Amino acid sequence: MFRRSLLQFFSLFLCCFFLVVGCNTAPSGENGDTATGNGEPTTDRITLGTTLKPRTLDPADAYEIAGLNIIANLCDSLYTYKPSTTDLEPHLATEMPAISEDGLTYVIPIREDVVFHDGTALNAEAVKFSLDRFIQNGGKPSFLLADIVDTVEATGDYEVTIALKQPFAAFTALLAFAGTCAVSPEAYALGEGEFTPNEFVGSGPYKLAAFTSDSLRLDVNEDYWGEAPNNEGVDIQIYNDNSANLFNAFQTQAVDIAYQSLDPDQISNLLEGAEEGQWQAIEAPGTAVSFMALNRNQDPLDQPEVRKAVASIVNRDLINERVLKGQADPLYSLIPTSFTAYDPIFEEAYGDGNVEQAKQLLEEAGYTPDNPAVIEVWFPSGSATRSLAAQTLQAFAEQELEGSLQFDPKTVDGATFFQNIKKGIYPATMVFWYPDFLDADNYIQPFLSCAEGSEDEGCTQGGAATQGSFYYDERMNELIEAQRQAADESERLEVFGEIQERLAEDVPYVPLWQNKEYLFVQSGIEGVVMNASQDIPFSLIEK
Predict the structure, then answer these.
(1) Phi/psi of residue 60, nearest 5 degrees
(2) For the whole model, what pTM was predicted?
(3) Is 524 left (phi over 0), alpha (psi -120 to 50) or beta?
């Protein structure tokens, strides 16, 4: 009996032993990568965890951060940004473009030592093909070039000439957008709707080795023309909108890097761990902005005094403290602080939580506690942050203004919300904006320009209508075109100054906050930085 029990004990022990060993050994990758008993990888591959799944990896159709972040590491664009800045520099191009005096023609020399992942040579014809494909295939971001570019021509074996329909001072920045990168003409088709969402053949430092529903594998491109990556590849684990799983994966060292999207409480927890030396926290100023759009066609926001009262009562510090847990920066213009053109005009004109000014403006408009101005504030139902921000704004106004200005938070599903904005249904909305490209123009033209409209009916077609303010000002249209055509940077900055002054005077929007981006990195990982375009250059990372 004792012998039988002893045998059972040893059998159970051996079973548990192998289970424990199995549970503490990292799963083998396609190249047999494993981990040591203390959890440290035996290879120099990097593992990154995220909740964001790319919809597509076709650069002609990718318009979301998840896909563009991957594409930026698989391909090369003509121009790029110096790490962690908004300063442009040549990439596939060998020099900054030669621009004609009228601002309509860009001549760009191309590198001669580049091949695509499939071995096809990269030359001017390949660059022309890639840009033509971006425009003609009609993907989500195609308008970025289609609205501006007239023709793209290969004017030499390694020279491209681009003719614009009208001058656009920010055009070089557009050529740094990851979606405009060069792709192999042998691997892609030119034609409306011709997309390849699950494959990628570019010329970047990594090749796409695998793309599944919950992971991506990037292997080093051994034939890369530039500096070789500091690692042996990158494995990306997608937690499909489940921030709790990403949070736990990082804490248990299942991933080397955690990036987008964690909620404020999880970020606070990980920041505390970083302060204690458990891991690294990298903070970078974001380029996404949050704001309120005020519909000038809806009562009571049709009165400038009411819009100014809203701008006065907004308390950014309170929202940052109670809602964002200090994980954002207050914003006083639609242009974020990353750009030289930024002018904190709303801070100068309205301040934060300026109760007395708000009361005076409301009285001028005829609103009192007995006759309140009631404003519905709409936002997507999936945004807990905007829900809390709207409630905070509502409570502060109720407490300080004695009921003369009442905010009424309203929510609806995201798809309906964005469809209804341009229909003029909502008096006020609380939304955010991720830039298409890094230039101050991309925070102004999409919001304040108007193609058709009048002072009486407001904007009926154009950026202001699309964003829900329906703002119309002919002088603003002139200023937007002036900064787009300005060849001199100082002249352009002066125009941006007047644009922001008019923005604060007319108040079609109230800027709220500028996001901060956080990367959490395990100890022993080096070289992790975030670009202003919110992508991470994987090739700089090393263990």
Answers:
(1) -80, -10
(2) 0.85
(3) left
Identify the pLDDT of residue 37. 37
In this predicted model, what pLDDT tens digit does every residue of 211-258 receive, in sequence order? 999 999 999 999 999 999 999 999 999 998 789 999 999 999 999 999
User: Which tokens sit at 443?
Assistant: 């925070």
**Contact (CB, 8 A) for 278 and 524:** no
Given this model, what pLDDT does residue 11 score?
40
d(CA 204, CA 539): 10
Q: Which residues of 418-454 are buried (b: 16+ CB within 10 A; e: fewer)?
A: eeebeebbbbbbbbbbbbbbbbbbbbbbbbbbbeebe
Q: Which two tokens stand for residue 41?
A: 């990888």
Closest CA to 468 of 411, 499, 509: 509
Contact 84, 284 (CB under 8 A): yes
The tokens of 235 are what?
Answer: 């494995």
Alpha carbon separation from 92 to 71, 77, 256, 276, 437 (Å, rounded): 15, 6, 30, 42, 18
Residues with pLDDT less than 70, the chain: 1-42
Distance from chain centroid for Cα 174: 15
d(CA 525, CA 503): 44
Q: Is 430 helix (H, G, I), strand (E, B) or coil?
A: strand
* Sign of the C-alpha dihedral computed for residues 182, 185, 190 and 194 taken in this order: negative
